[in-house]
Amino acid sequence: MAGLGEGILDLLSRLNTHSRYPDTKRDEAYTSSYRFIRLVVGFLGILLPIILIIGEAFFLRGGVHVRGSLSEYYHTSMQDVFVGGLCVIGFLLATYMAGEWRTWDFGASLIAGIAVLGVVFFPTTRSGLPVGAPACGSVPEPAGCSAIEQALGEHQTAVIHAVCAIVFILFLAVMSFLFAVSEVLPEKDRTRMKGRSGPGMFRRPGLFWTHSVCALVILAAGAWAFAGPGIWELTRLYIGEVASVWAFGVSWLVAGFYLTAPGRSEMSIETMDFRGAAAVPSGNP
User: Fold this and answer.
1) 180-204: per-residue pLDDT in tens?
2) Residue 75 covered by a domain
3) Is residue 9 part of a domain?
């Protein structure tokens, strides 16, 4: 019986449930996983507005109809896709950089993640209702109301939704700005570049300016949503939301394709102590 138990434990120990990469390759594998999260968030941000239109038009036979805002898809046949897509983005943002929770990156992404979840669970008002139609919160319950809308009232829920949307867009810009900041060299590393009179300021100038432009586009798109004109059948709110989400997606895709985290300039005391202890043979006092 003891032999059978040992055999089962040996079998379990051989299962591929733990990292088997040695030394630095293990760190590279985890870094790749971390960057893959950035790619997923970036692709979702860019594809979600397109999926909502295509899905409603071709898969659910709703006709090609661009809504007044992305949030209005909550009250359409694409509700599940809208909720599912934003929930994935929200949970990924809320847990992004959780291993380094004392950083600005984690704080900004956590706020953005919570805000976008608020956008999902506190929906905007229903559109296309006839004049005098009862609002959510009245009795009997009107069609198309969520449980939260019925409990808090349609207007109050929409106000919370709008606040969450504003916070979400603002912190999308903050995260793109932080990606740009990660490309700025520390003061002691700003050496004079060969053939140039000025000091080198960035690790990769192209990435710094790409993320900076994305942050500015997000802010400009947010302002457009409030004060810009509509174009064709597109409302100013829809244009502003889509532009901000696309700029955010581009920034995160670039961050996923490139390692934009700042490099360690000095080894931490804890790391040096650990490596020093590991270098000492176990038989030595």
Assistant:
1) 888 777 766 666 554 454 456 777 7
2) yes
3) no
Query: Does any domain span residue 155?
Result: yes
Q: What is the pLDDT of residues 252-276, one digit of tens each?
A: 888 877 755 544 444 433 444 434 4
**Residue 158: both structure tokens together:** 């929409």
Could you check whether the bond before residue 229 is cis, i.e. omega within 30 degrees of 0?
A: no
The range of the structural domain enclosing residue 78 comes to 30-127+143-184+202-260
Overall domain count for the chain: 1
- Of residues 90 and 101, the one with the higher pLDDT is 90
- The phi and psi torsions of 2 (rounded to 5 degrees) equal -65, -40
Residue 80, in any domain of the structure? yes
pLDDT digits (tens, 9 = 90+) for 11-56: 766 665 555 666 666 666 666 777 777 788 888 888 888 888 887 7
8 A C-beta contact, residue 139 and residue 131: no
CA proximity to 257, closest of 41, 9, 71, 76: 41
Q: What is the mean pLDDT of residues 61-74?
A: 72
